[in-house]
Amino acid sequence: MDICKKDKKIKKQGFMKGVVILMVSQVFIKIMGLAYRMYLTNRQGFGDKGNAIYGSGFQIYALLLTISSIGVPNAVSKLVSERVAVGDHKGAHKIFKIAIVTFGIVGFLSSIFLFTFAEKIANYWIQIPEAQMSLVTLSPSIFFVSLICVIRGYFNGRESVKVTANSQMIEQTFKALLTVIIVEIVAIISGVDTTLMAAGANLATTISSILCFAYLYIYYVGVRKEIAREVKNTVNYKYKGIRKIIKEILSVSIPMSITPILTAINKNIDSITVVRGLKNFLTESAAKAEYGILTGKVDTLISMPMSFNIAFSTALVPVVSSAKAMKNLDSAKKRIEFSLLITILIGLPCAIGIILFAKPILSLLFPNQVSGIFILQVSATSIIFIVLEQTISSVLQGIGKTFIPAIALGIGVIVKFILNTILVPINPNTFILGGTAGAAFSTTICHIIAFSIDMHIVKKYIKLNIDKKDYIIKPIIATFMMGVSLLFTYNLLIGIISEKMCTIVALIVSIIIYIISVFVLKIFSESNIYMIPYGKNIYKVLQTVGIYGKEEKDRE
User: Fold this and answer.
1) Coil, strand, or helix at residue 131?
2) Which residues have C-beta within 8 Å of that of residue 33, sequence separation ≥ 6?
3) Which residues contact 449 (CB under 8 A, 6 or more apart)?
4) Which of 32, 113, 150, 553 could pair with 176 in a Cys bridge, judged by C-beta atoms 3.0 to 4.6 Å apart?
5) Which residues lie below 8 Å from residue 206, measured CB to CB, with a gap of 6+?
6) What is the phi/psi pair of residue 433, to 5°?
7) How far apart (Å, rounded) are the C-alpha atoms in residues 271 and 146?
8) pTM for the model
């Protein structure tokens, strides 16, 4: 394999090439994630109840993982990119070495904590005793993911995002395959025991994390000589002691960690309040099944659009950080504006498409467990605000305002907790936004608040050229055209071909119509198109078909 070659060169990618690489990997990850979620949800003996056990255990794991490591990739990426930008490769590598030891220790302690207190967390915190074994099987993964995050952050900071993309795809591939294999083995041995099957599914997460770490370690060994040459030829090196570097890493990673920690807490609010609240008018078994709908099907589908957008949010941090280090923030401005535009063009149609097509989508993907249509529709309203919040948070982190996204989301989380405690215990037969739909609605309100605060602060520090016509009006028109084509195609074909084929064809047609609408409405300027890989060729094609005239000027 290439990663074993001693003199392997570390390839750097430009902003948009890096975005495309990350986007492809994220789409692949989400598709694989959806595939094994479909398998689990439709698997006899697992279903919504199994998703409740699997999901509740995973949310606690995600919270501890966030505390121990999730802020690390962006923090290390930011610090490394700042050092590399001025030629200090020695300082950048020193940050990496100290970070891997520091967060390796933190991750190990978190793994021990989860293993030790799994029983108490399952019984008293989330009140799903069956989740204990899932928590135990997940506990070793925290240590390995902590190390993985540092290595990914180091290479991201060096603008070598392909390493991150490859590692993510490897991890998710193994996770999907192992989930199916282990769950089937456990089902045969245990006689289809839902609790043991859920634990087996989470065991697949731990094994895939170990395999991902192995890949990254082998890659690092392969490029170590190249790194050594760069360190030897370093310039602008300023000596810093280990304590000072640890303090510097923590001063960046802790604020950056607060936002994902609050995101994890946001999910755990549901794990703590939903089953409790639903017991007011449902049996315990039915309450768990409802929570399983939220974590198993709804959250999986709502997270799909983020797979596109997370590429921009990941790539923006080192770009903005480097520009700030070089005291040339204006150079990053165009990329920020373009990222915001793409975010809107991704989030808006995804939200509307799911709202309009919730039932056919659930029928297509989860034919054995179609329940949760209204919950999915309510949750879909949060998509546009979540993806916008992702992008704006990355800009704030890049310019050093790392506490702002945390404060903004913190306010949103508090509001969500209050709304959950009020809405979830209400029978939905009494109030439409009661029960599980209330938890979905409160999530939307949470992210509306967080995005609004973040955007207000960004406008104070960066004068973005946001044209309402291109960023709001035209995307709404394109989304409207997509929605009309979606419903028209579905209603035209229903009864002629199978419902599943009808859904697939309608979705494909609506996507094509949407893409055409985006270009016909000229939402992208010439410079926007040039930022896309092979942009010049794309622009020439658009000129040839008459969408963009030769006289079209850059709208800046």
Assistant:
1) helix
2) 172, 175, 176, 300, 303
3) 408, 411, 412, 415
4) 32
5) 137, 138, 139, 140, 141, 144
6) -100, 25
7) 24
8) 0.71
> Can you read off the two tokens belonging to residue 486?
């979606």
Q: Is 497 helix (H, G, I), strand (E, B) or coil?
A: strand
The whole-angstrom separation of Cα 234 and Cα 240 is 15
What six digits make up the tokens of 33? 């994630």
> In one letter, which amino acid is 76?
V
Q: Name the residue range of residue 305's domain.
A: 2-226+244-466
Give domain status of residue 526, yes or no.
no
Cα dihedral 184, 215, 101, 69 sign: negative
Tally of domains in the chain: 1
399 token code pair: 């310019």
Is residue 138 domain-resident?
Answer: yes
Q: Enumerate the H helices of 117-241 as residue ranges.
A: 118-120, 132-157, 161-190, 194-222, 224-232
249 token code pair: 């890493």
Select the highest-mean-pLDDT range: 38-47, 77-86, 169-178, 226-235: 169-178
* Three-state DSSP state, 133: helix
Q: Is the residue at 499 inside a domain? A: no
Distance, CA of 363 to chain centre: 25
Q: How confident is the model at residue 227 (pLDDT cuts 50, 70, 90)?
A: confident
More confident residue, 353 or 534: 353
Evaluate if residue 11 carries a pLDDT over 70: no
> Is the residue at 109 inside a domain?
yes
CB 91 within 8 A of CB 83: yes
Query: What contacts 526, CB < 8 A, 6 or more positions away?
Result: 539, 548, 552, 553, 554, 555
Euclidean distance between CA atoms 389 and 394, whole angstroms: 9
CA dist 211 and 234 (Å) reads: 33
**156: amino acid identity, one letter:** N
Handedness of CA 527, 528, 532, 538 (dihedral sign): negative
